[in-house]
Amino acid sequence: MAMIFDRIAVLGVGLIGSSIAHAARESGVTRVVQLYDADPEVCQRARELGLGEVFDDPAKAVEKAELVVLCVPVGAMAAAVEAAKPGLKIGAIITDVGSVKQAVVESVGAKLPTYVYFVPGHPIAGTERSGPDAGFAALFHNRWHILTPLPGDEREAYAAAVDQVEEFWRAFGADVERMAPDRHDVVLAVTSHLPHLIAFNIVAMAEDLESVTESEVVKYSASGFRDFTRIAASDPTMWRDVFLNNKDAVLEVLGRFSEDLAALQRAIRWSDGDTLYALFDRARRMRREVIEAGQDTSAPNWGRDRD
Amino acid sequence: MAMIFDRIAVLGVGLIGSSIAHAARESGVTRVVQLYDADPEVCQRARELGLGEVFDDPAKAVEKAELVVLCVPVGAMAAAVEAAKPGLKIGAIITDVGSVKQAVVESVGAKLPTYVYFVPGHPIAGTERSGPDAGFAALFHNRWHILTPLPGDEREAYAAAVDQVEEFWRAFGADVERMAPDRHDVVLAVTSHLPHLIAFNIVAMAEDLESVTESEVVKYSASGFRDFTRIAASDPTMWRDVFLNNKDAVLEVLGRFSEDLAALQRAIRWSDGDTLYALFDRARRMRREVIEAGQDTSAPNWGRDRD
Q1: Which of A52-56, B14-18, B129-133, B290-294 shows the lowest mean pLDDT across its residues?
Q2: Is residue A290 situated within a structural domain?
Q3: Predicted ipTM?
Q4: B227 with B144, same domain?
Q5: Is residue B303 part of a domain?
Q6: Contact residues on chain A for B286, CB-CB shorter than 8 A
Q7: CATH code of A208's domain
Q8: Chain B residues whose beta carbon lies within 8 Å of the beta carbon of residue A134
Q9: Which of its termini does chain A have fewer beta carbons within 10 Å around, N or C?
Q10: Are residues B173 and B205 in the same domain?
Q11: Alpha-carbon span A107 to A99, nearest angstrom
């Protein structure tokens, strides 16, 4: 793999930031990785893990970096850019990994100087873990990475900057797709934001029940519930920011979900077995398509119950 | 492992029935496994797989069997018992694997002759696969098996029959727990029935959306949605019967889920970040408890993304 950037900076050393540091070293896309995190303990841990050159000041961390990757929660992006701005190199490329794009385009875009190039992005990759110890180089391998280039940026060098960011993620084994920011937010509201919201809701609900104890829920969770606990273990700050910053699309699809659930509730109440069967039967097809598209393993129970 | 029964009969050769046939052979709990399925193609496949002695008549299949395991959907149990009745041995033990217990106690209980012993049960084990090819011996290993003995059965030999059924499942590596039938139904409504209902609902909803295409949902499903497709791939007949036969408990917990979801929707609409954060943060603890209780693997993404 040829080197793409001499130095890159990663602001925010959580699951994604630390995975980028690992993948950058493994792939050889850059000579130096410069890191910053607002939490001194995370900086300390990043040093211990040898993830790169760790700085206590974001403006120092981005100095001389040809690519800056914003890996902080969506709600913290504008402040991170503001703090890093004094150190930004002329002609630097800025990208991010936020799960919401339109809000980031607006908030980060407003803070950036005119002498840099902003190429928003979102890796469709992750685990339920967070923090600097959670990262690993293969996280992006065979996963989609969505870039949402700014339609309004007509500078000649902008197209080349977008291509370089694309090349960067491809070097980590990702498949790159380009999309309009608002389109991204509608698609992800369905495939990611609503599923997480529902998982958080059912897990919190189960904890609050009076009729069934928490220890009973845990004990018999293998009958379905445990799958929801994995998704609901994701970083709460990141997810709070997602819902606050993709409100319209999430509320729209949540309304649809509730409407359909009410219809299902009615079918149960009136013992409408045909409606239930028809709906359950359709869901199988979607599973087959997900597996055929290489987006999940076909092993029963994801292979986790193998002895 | 000592032999517990000379002959057992398994009515219904799906995921659970075929897994019992495999586990029975592997554990040596019985000398002979006699099988019946209402679908001639399934019978044929059971013969090809060498799962046991396959019969075309349920009354023949249960002849001389000391234990009969009903492995058909909950709604088909009473008819299966009715058809098998002429062949039932005096003193035979009947058990089942239905996901609902109170309805089975009533429907099967009403059909059984007085000279047999009925010990209802439910293995908290399964995968999203169904049919005779889906079974494997280790399915019950380290999983809970709930027995719901009939409180009204005061015959002296009944307690011994319950103990034998318990020993049978323990021979497959299961942990056995006893519970009242109605209590089982309330607990499973939370841990299993509601999670499945929600998964079916979101998958069907995503298929129907006009704003996002099905191929987009599939393509970006790794961001959360794919987890729901696994659960929603479960057998539709089985699940239809679960909802029709555990109506009260499911509607009760579904009402609670919808109420909590409405509160979450409101928090998003009013940008109440503190409420969202507090709720998301709590969900992590439940995940830790599930893992500590040995009910799930701690590997990120269940280890399915390992290269």
Answers
A1: B290-294
A2: no
A3: 0.93
A4: no
A5: no
A6: 203, 206-207, 214, 217-218, 229, 232
A7: 1.10.3660.10
A8: 300
A9: C
A10: no
A11: 14
The mean per-residue pLDDT over the stretch B207-236 comes to 93
Do A188 and A255 share a domain, yes or no? yes
| Interchain contact, B258 vs A261, CB within 8 Å | yes
| Alpha-carbon distance values, A293 to A144, A250, A286, B63 (Å) | 12, 25, 11, 48
**Distance in angstroms (rounded) separating the CA atoms of residues B25 and B33:** 8
**One domain for residues A155 and A65:** yes
Same structural domain for residues B164 and B191?
A: no
Helix axes A247-269, A273-292, angle to 10 degrees: 140
Beta bridge partners, A146, equal: A122, A177
Q: In DSSP terms, which residues pair with A69 in a beta bridge?
A: A10, A95
What would the pLDDT profile of B112-139 be if each residue is shown by its tens digit?
999 999 999 999 999 999 999 999 999 9
| d(CA B109, nearest CA chain A) in Å | 22
A4-29 pLDDT per residue, tens = 999 999 999 999 999 999 999 999 99
pLDDT digits (tens, 9 = 90+) for A146-159: 999 998 999 999 99
CATH assignment at residue B57 = 3.40.50.720
What integer best gives the mean pLDDT of chain B? Answer: 96
* Pairing, β B93-96 against β A121-123: unpaired
- Give the integer Cα–Cα distance in Å for B56 and B44: 10
User: Number of A:B CB contacts under 8 A?
Assistant: 365
In this structure, are strands A117-119 and A121-123 parallel, antiparallel, or unpaired?
Answer: unpaired
Give the domain extent around B87.
5-179
- Please name the helix (run of DSSP H) or strand (run of DSSP E) that holds residue B67, with its range, or none: strand B67-70
Looking at the structure of chain B, the number of domains it has is 2
Which residues in chain A touch residue B226, judged by CB atoms under 8 angstroms apart? 290, 295-296
Q: Which two tokens stand for residue A292?
A: 């055929």
Q: What is the pTM of this model?
A: 0.94
d(CA A212, CA A217): 7
- B153 inside domain: yes
Tokens at residue B99, please? Answer: 């996901």
- Nearest CB to B251; choose among A223, A268, A302: A268
